[in-house]
């Protein structure tokens, strides 16, 4: 058992996987929130761990940056490792005035400028959306922990350094934040009949220039991680 990108054996991954982009954030989550840890993958330094959170098996593995990268890892988890649900726990740039640094956004949908969905040869435009069950469970987990969250649309972009700034146009359509992975993850979940949700902490505000540090992005954002892990527990019990 294994793939070109994952050396884990069948059964090494829990049914729920948290996916930060950064392998160091994956290691941080595993070492600070899980017990009975086991490193199950380290191909290309993309560390995957399985452990327990409040007695529930949970895995955490990095996705890398962008839809091509999370597309590979999430597809393999869904199809080769029998994972049922993936919770992306990442960072995003806030583009709506209601969103500020360190706020948490639950992505109910993912607008995109990517051509990722072209592979399905659909006779129209597919709308990548989160699993409603996971979204509902995450909102409930946040309320129980008294952690405020925003719920709305994300923009999943293929471009980090863009020639033109289109964020004001997306802002006018009510999009809350921009990141680079959710749409690809949601499309893979739809195609494989699995569940996915993106939780994103606002790490910067590209329209104002405000930003958190690289170290903060790697080792903080505990509230988002708590919501995601509590969602994993609720999902396992449902």
Helical fraction equals 25-40%
Low-confidence stretches: none
Give the oligomer, counting copies of the same chain as homo and different chains as hetero: single chain
Largest sheet: 5 strands, mixed, barrel
Give the strand tally.
10
Protein structure class = alpha/beta
Rounded to the nearest angstrom, the radius of gyration is: 17 Å
Terminus-to-terminus distance: 29 Å
The overall average pLDDT, rounded, is 93
Order of helices and strands: EHEEEHEEHEHEHEEHH
How many helices in DSSP terms? 7
Which sequence of strands runs across the widest sheet?
5-8-7-6-9
Indicate the proportion of strand residues: 25-35%
Shape: globular
Summarize the structure.
With about 240 residues, the chain is of the alpha/beta class. The protein contains 7 helices and 10 strands. Strands 5-8-7-6-9 form a 5-stranded mixed β-barrel, surrounded by 4 helices.
């Amino acid at each position: 058992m294994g793939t070109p990108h994952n050396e884990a054996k069948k059964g090494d991954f829990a049914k729920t996987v948290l996916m930060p982009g950064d392998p160091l954030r994956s290691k941080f989550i595993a070492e600070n929130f899980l017990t009975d840890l086991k490193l199950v993958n380290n191909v290309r330094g993309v560390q995957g761990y399985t452990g327990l959170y409040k007695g529930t098996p949970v895995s955490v593995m990095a996705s890398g940056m962008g839809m091509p990268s999370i597309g590979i890892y999430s597809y393999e988890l869904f199809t080769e490792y029998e994972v049922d649900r993936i919770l992306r726990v990442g960072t995003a740039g806030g583009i709506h005035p209601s969103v500020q640094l360190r706020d948490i956004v639950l992505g109910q949908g993912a607008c995109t400028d990517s051509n990722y969905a072209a592979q399905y040869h659909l006779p129209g435009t597919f709308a990548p959306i989160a699993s409603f069950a996971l979204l509902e469970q995450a909102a409930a987990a946040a309320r129980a922990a008294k952690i405020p969250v925003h719920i709305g649309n994300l923009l999943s972009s293929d471009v980090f350094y863009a020639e033109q700034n289109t964020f004001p146009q997306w802002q006018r359509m009510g999009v809350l934040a921009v990141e680079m992975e959710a749409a690809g993850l949601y499309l893979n979940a739809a195609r494989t009949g699995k569940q996915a949700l993106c939780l994103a902490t606002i790490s910067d505000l590209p329209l104002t220039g405000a930003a958190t540090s690289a170290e903060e992005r790697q080792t903080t954002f505990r509230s988002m991680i708590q919501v995601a892990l509590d969602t994993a527990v609720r999902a396992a019990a449902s």
